[in-house]
Amino acid sequence: MFRIGNTYIPVLVYHNIGQYRDLYTITPVLFEQQMSFLYNYGFSPLIPADLIHYYIGTKPLPRKPILLTFDDGYRSFLTHALPILSKYGFYCLVFVVTQLIGKLDYFNNPSGKYQLLSKVELIEPSRLGIHFGSHSATHRPLTLLEKDELLTEIAYSKHSLEDIIGKPICFFAYPYGASNECIRKMVKAAGYRFAFTNRFTLNEPFEVGRILIGASDNSCRSRLKISPLYPFIKNILSVVK
Questions:
Q1: C-alpha distance from residue 39 to each of 18, 33, 183 (Å)
Q2: In the chain, what is the straight-line distance between the N-terminal and C-terminal CA atoms, in Å?
């Protein structure tokens, strides 16, 4: 959830789209249902490149704005998610792990279960208007690393991705949502304009909160998650527990 002025913008984060559901994988059917709901109820997925203009007030927000993001850069984005997004004319932001491009998702599965996008597979979606950001170089928790390692994860990954797609990279997503003040300063110094976490922050450009959409999120639950009240409901439920 992100707030610009008096407008709350749900920021959703997806991972893998596939036939076999697990914590970070939802089926193409469920993803289609969710995108259909957004389309039919008039939501406007934002063009990521315009986010800075919305934030500083040089461009008005569309009606019922929402931001769609995908973490890790799974190949299923190309095969399952992109055709559905294109069907509805939706924009999104995809975060990739630069040293694992074209490899398997060892960070989520020790043996590597799902294929990640290759360099070639990043280029064509970029030409079609899909925006990319860095999800670090190796997907390690940044709060556990030394400063020289952080430079690789933050700055090197930015330059590496820019070399591949030939466009400036302005967005960063913290692996596991982990950051601190020092890390956020390094992300800003590296030239990023926005950075995303998994916490419910409302108005911090280098700590933009996101809402996870996973296998347990049916149509009703995913609709609740895009409500401006969801962060407050979640906090209340956590206290009750």
A1: 22, 10, 37
A2: 23
Average pLDDT over residues 113-142: 93
The answer to whether the beta carbons of residues 72 and 116 sit under 8 Å apart is yes
What's the burial of 79, exposed, middle or buried (CB within 10 Å: 0-12/13-18/19+)? middle
Contact 202, 209 (CB under 8 A): yes
pTM (predicted TM-score): 0.91
- Cα separation, 46 vs 48, whole angstroms: 6
Model confidence over 22-34: pLDDT tens digits? 788 999 999 999 9
Distance of CA 37 to the CA centre of its chain: 20
In this structure, which amino acid lies at residue 225? K
- Yes or no: say if 116 and 56 are a contact pair by the CB < 8 Å rule: no
Q: How far apart are CA 121 and CA 99, in angstroms?
A: 15
Helices and strands of the chain, counted as H and E runs: 10, 12
> To the nearest 5 percent, what fractions of the chain are helix, strand and coil?
40, 20, 40
Q: How many C-beta atoms lie closer than 10 Å to residue 225's C-beta?
A: 19
Structure tokens, 72: 């890790």
